Amino acid sequence: MKAEDFDKQIARMAKNHEVTPPSMVWNNIAQEIQKPQQEVHKKRFPFYASLSIAAAMLIFMGFALHIFYLKDGKKEQELTTHNPASDHSMESAPQEQSLAMTPAERELSGPKISQQIASESPLITAESRLKQLDKNSHELIAAQKETALSMENKNKRVKISPPNRVFAAQDIQLTLTSAINHETPPMKTGATMKIIDANEQEFEDRKRKPNILVMVLNTLTQNINPTQKELSFNQDEEGTIQVDFSNTLVKN
Amino acid sequence: MEPTKILCLWEKCRLNDPQAQHELYQHFASKMYPVALRYAQDTAEAQDILQNGFIKVFTKTNYYQGKGSLEGWIRRVIINTAIEQHRKNKINFLSIDQVAYHPGNSCSSLDHLDYKDLLAIIQQLPVGYRTVFNLYAIEGCGHKEIAEMLQINEGSSKSQLSRARSWLQKRIQKMEELEL
Asked: Which candidate from B31, B51, B54 shows the least CB-CB separation from A18?
């Protein structure tokens, strides 16, 4: 038999035949058909519920974020409003000193270089910053040399105020390195007396105001032994704390 | 049942009328069950195919657009369900080497063979052979169409058909020998 005839014969036998399926098949079909309609009714609530939950969560998150940023904004505002005031208070105190300073020092004693650069032009490059630092270092060296000269001339114990009052630590480092690399500019001798006077005044103020640590130590010793004042603490001109044993030695 | 009455039932089925659905099922189930049996390995699998096929018929009524007979469309749905089920069971239609191929075996007449025996032999065929043979020999599909349906090459469809034929002829011969 040819292959085609074989196929035809089988097809003829298979096609004209009917078989009744068991009744359970229809029961299953009926159940399955009715299911989707029931599921649709069931699913409606969870669908809207999930949507509403999602919306509520979004709103809550929004509020939370809003409050969070509002707080941050307030903090920033406080900082911005407080800073100028504090700067003013800082600046108002050494007004007398600034009067006695040279124009170069006055310029240096203003806001820090980093702050200056930031406030003047935010797009200043590192190169321009370095140039600025070099310029300032020259001026600082000049000022320091002026004070040194005047000290020698006067033969007085005058202590130069540490430069960290004017500059940040990093600025000083930069100035020192640049000072090594550069030649020292010509010295200026004008207005040196004013600086020395200012420094003297500062030291006198220090003398008048006893150190807090010294005060605390003295009160402690007094409390321990109130009748016998054998130990006493003092502070010298340079600020070093001295322990006075003289009374104990006298007693012995 | 008259074609107009079938169409009327179908329209009711579109509106999810349970009575009409049951009537339509009663009319076509006995015709579709043999189709499912031919594609399945046993009666349980055939019942699953029939069940899933009719669920598709009643839930996806919009897919029938009135082109061709409703019976032909339902038949196609049942066949597709059977193929889908085989895919779900991860059955590879390219399982050519499952059975040794012995070409050239001729077969005498199939007159002595009844439907039950034929169905039993077909059900014993490997899935790939069975599906290709059913589609080509009984449904009248071309190799190109079969290749698209089963996502195989046209060549492999041809080779599977010839191997299925040879396998069937061999089995029928054996049965004849046993009867004699």
From this structure: B31
Least confident span in A49-63, A97-111, B4-18, B103-117: A97-111
Cβ distance A7 to B136 less than 8 Å, yes or no, reads yes
Q: How many domains does chain A have?
A: 3
Per-residue pLDDT tens over the stretch A21-61: 998 999 999 988 887 666 656 555 677 788 889 999 999 99
Q: What pLDDT score was predicted for residue B75?
A: 92
Q: Do A33 and B110 touch (CB under 8 A)?
A: no
Q: B21, B13 in Cβ contact below 8 A?
A: yes
Among chain A residues, the shortest Cα distance to B60 is held by: A33
Last residue of a domain, one of B88, B105, B130: B88
Q: Show the domain range for B8.
A: 3-88
**How far is CA A4 from its chain centroid?**
90
Nearest chain B CA: its distance from A35 CA (Å): 11
Give me the residue from B26, B51, B168 closest to A28, CB to CB. Answer: B51
- Can you tell me the ipTM of this complex? 0.82
The number of residues in chain A equals 252
* A112 in the same domain as A57: no
Closest chain B C-alpha to A24 CA, distance in angstroms: 9
Residue ranges making up the domain that contains A38: 3-70
CB contact under 8 A, B108 and A26: no
pLDDT in tens, B15-72: 888 899 999 999 999 999 999 999 998 899 999 999 999 999 999 888 888 888 889 9
Task: Give yes or no for a contact between B64 and B39, defined as CB atoms under 8 angstroms apart.
Answer: no
> Are residues A223 and A201 part of one domain?
no
Task: Select the residue of A10, A24, A33 nearest B21 (Cβ to Cβ).
Answer: A33
Q: Which of B58, B88, B118 is the last residue of a domain?
A: B88
- DSSP per residue, B18-72: HHHHHHHHHHHHHHHHHHHHHHSSSHHHHHHHHHHHHHHHHH-GGG--S-S-HHH
CB A198 within 8 A of CB A147: no
Asked if residue B104 and residue B82 are part of one domain, the reply reads no
CATH number of the domain to which B35 belongs = 1.10.1740.10
- Which residue in B1, B16, B5 sits closest to B59, CA to CA? B16
Let me know whether A131 and A190 are in one domain: yes
Instruction: Please check whether residues B84 and B101 belong to one and the same domain.
Output: no
The answer, as to whether pTM is greater than 0.80, is no
Number of domains in chain B: 2
